[in-house]
Amino acid sequence: MTAKALLARAAQWLPALVVAAVVIGLWQGLIVAFHVQQFLLPRPSAIATTFWSDRHELWPAGWYTFKEALGGFAIGSGLGILAATLVGRFKTVGTALMPVFIAANAVPIVAFAPIADAWFNPFSPHSKMAIAAVLCFLPVMVNTLRGLQSSSPRQIELMRSYAASELTIWRRVRVPTALPFVFTALKIASVLAMIGAIVGEYFGGATSALGVLINSDAQIFQFTTAWAGILTASLLGIGLYLAVAVAERGVVRWAPRAQGS
């Protein structure tokens, strides 16, 4: 990548960095100006200090939770893509299953988390993976289905005029058309997976889990440490999002939307 391209890429991130700096500056200034108590909202400088001083505890806990989120992300996204393929190929199956999919995703995750703990060992990562998978499933399934159904009728008609099989049409036309939709859904799911893992850990989990750490620190009024844990979770969620965005840029080279993300 040339120096000009690097400068152009940096310029794209400049507005976001400026807004982040302004928000953090206002946060710090307003807390000092209005003498806001730490238990209500700690100063960003205090959170950053705790984040660094407790890094040996926060990062192992964050990595443990990240692996749960990554497992749920893979399971939920994989099942979502598979379900969208079946629904798109067999309309009768889609008509029967779509209400079930929507109803399952409409269940509040706070209500589902204790049930998942009852199904699995609450101290194992599997219940948290299940919660994250449920959150990831519907966005991926709906967006993938929309992408598979967005193929141009003229392209499909042209392929059929060359006696192309349905599998060839699916591979050559429907999948390339659906890929930008799929990656959009995966970026949404990458954030939801981290949320699902953290929420699941609020209802029980290993003592080394980040959600358990945040919850226990908040209960004993160690709010600065709890906010440092939230910062750790946010950074890991952003990291997973960026990984998906990089994969999109490498796979979907022809889509302007992927190039601009």
Give an overview in words.
With 261 residues, the chain is mostly helical. The chain folds into 2 domains: 1-36; 42-260, MetI-like fold. Helices cover 83% and strands 0% of the residues. The chain has helices at residues 3-34, 44-53, 55-89, 91-106, 109-119, 126-148, 153-161, 166-202, 210-219, 223-251, 256-260. The longest helix is centred in the last third of the chain and has 37 residues, at 166-202. The radius of gyration is 22 Å and the shape is globular. Residues 256-261 have low confidence and may be disordered.
CATH architecture of the largest domain: Orthogonal Bundle
Query: Could you name the CATH homologous superfamily of the largest domain?
Result: MetI-like
Query: How would you sum up the major sheet?
Result: none
**DSSP strand count:** 0
Task: Provide the succession of SSEs.
Answer: HHHHHHHHHHH
User: What class do helices, strands and sheet pairing give?
Assistant: mainly alpha
Mean pLDDT: 85
Shape annotation: globular
**Overall tally of structural domains:** 2
Please estimate the helix content.
Answer: over 70%
Instruction: Give the count of helical stretches.
Output: 11
What do we call the CATH topology of the largest domain?
Answer: MetI-like fold
Distance linking N and C termini: 17 Å
Oligomer: single chain
Low-pLDDT sequence parts:
256-261
What would CATH call the class of the largest domain? Mainly Alpha
Strand composition percent: under 5%
Using only C-alpha atoms, the radius of gyration works out to 22 Å
Summarize the structure.
With 261 residues, the protein is mainly α. It contains 11 helices and no strands. The longest helix has 37 residues, at 166-202.
